[in-house]
Design goal:
alpha/beta, Rossmann fold, seven-stranded parallel β-sheet, 31% helix, binds zinc ion
Length: 380
């Protein structure tokens, strides 16, 4: 027995109801009977000229080359673009998207996190002015068709064998990472090939690269050509860390993002810092998150304290980054790399400062620093 939606084959999840067997592993998406024939949705007719794109600024030679290699390879197989944070991964998908649309085939750009969906939707709409780009995520579910769908991975359950090109941005990010239901749903939604984009591939992607079922293309350099900012590690007791943090905030007057491991710590830290700086707080419990981020973006010299909810996707030009309590167990190497990768992304301030404040020595933080140094060395 196999669930037609999440591809589960574990018998323990199958239950027999009055109408027949159904799968309980993906029950949160509604009950689905195992023998239920899921009729693939009719592919809507694409707009004429949907594949034509306009670049606001030219791609770097490396972006162009990788984008082109990916587009060609995707005709036959799945591809992974492993590129450092801020290398312009979205730009490297343009050629593959255009090629797919030109063949009157369907494209979906799927992302684990909702707030990134809206950002990518706007960017793709700007790049492909002739295409109808539709965001499908919480709060945006009344229209689910378009020439390019930009969706959270949760929303892929709506599409059965629907996409010829499924781009999975940051597949190693929560909640997609290690979630078998979301992985199954993503597989069901795709009838062609998948393009994975990440700076920090997980064990599954690494294994697929090693066994040759996935073509991996690397990019170790950001478009502006500068090194990735390497984190400075500082370990001490809490009062000393606070003084170090205040000093760092004082000496870095631009926009500053301070990451904290838990919602509680983020709130306390933000209360404390508000005594000295204009400071906002953003966690998964923040209701007007989009607004908080937007205000921070506009301010240009504010401080935002955030949990890992902002670890990926959100780009604040010129931001400096501090990770408070970076030795905490919720941060793994991938999330530290992602947070450090928020710094120095723009052409106007390509360097940026990254500070990890630690209560005790942390191998994870040291490994993160070595990985970043290694990427810089390989790119040099
Ligand atoms: Zn299922």
């Amino acid at each position: 027995m196999k669930c037609p939606r999440c591809l589960n084959t574990d018998r323990r999840y199958f239950y027999k109801g009055s109408k027949g067997w159904y799968c309980r592993r993906c029950i949160s998406f509604g009950r689905i009977l195992i023998q239920e024939e899921r009729t693939p949705a009719q592919t809507p007719k694409l707009h004429e000229g949907a594949e034509e794109y306009i670049l606001a600024y030219p791609l770097t030679p490396a972006q162009k080359r990788i984008g082109h290699e990916a587009a060609i390879a995707l005709e036959k197989q799945d591809v992974l673009i492993e590129a450092v944070c801020g290398a312009g991964k979205t730009e490297m998908t343009i050629e593959a998207i255009a090629r797919t649309l030109a063949q009157k085939k369907t494209v979906c750009f799927a992302i684990a996190r909702r707030q990134v969906v809206l950002e990518i939707r706007d960017r793709l709409a700007g790049l492909f002015p002739g295409a109808r780009v539709t965001a499908v995520c919480q709060g945006f579910t009344s229209v689910t068709e378009g020439d390019i769908i930009v969706a959270t991975t949760h929303q892929l359950y709506r599409y059965e064998k629907r996409f010829d090109l499924l781009i999975l941005d940051e597949p190693d990010a929560f909640p997609f990472r290690g979630n078998p239901v979301l992985h199954g749903i993503a597989e069901t939604a795709c009838r062609g090939h998948r393009l994975f984009l990440t700076a920090t591939p997980d064990a599954v992607l690494k294994k697929r690269t090693a066994d040759g079922s996935l073509l991996c293309l690397y990019l170790n350099r950001r478009p502006h050509g500068h090194d990735l900012p390497e984190p400075v590690l500082f370990a001490s007791v809490l009062p000393v860390l606070m003084i170090r943090l205040l000093h760092w905030l004082k000496t870095h007057p631009g926009p500053r993002m301070v990451f904290a491991p838990t919602i509680r710590e983020a709130r306390l830290l933000s209360l404390f810092l508000s005594l000295f700086f204009p400071c906002s707080c953003c966690t998964s419990k923040t209701e007007n998150r989009d607004e908080v981020i937007e205000n921070f973006r506009k301010r240009k010299n504010g401080v935002i304290v955030a949990t890992t909810v902002l670890e990926r996707g959100v780009t604040i030009p010129g931001a400096d980054i501090c990770v408070f309590h970076a030795d905490h167990g919720v941060f793994d190497e991938a999330s530290l790399i992602q947070m450090a990768g928020r710094a120095g992304r723009s052409f106007s301030s390509p360097d940026g400062s990254v500070l990890f404040l630690l209560m005790k020595r942390s191998r994870t933080a040291e490994e993160c620093r070595s990985r970043i140094k290694e990427a810089n060395r390989c790119a040099a």
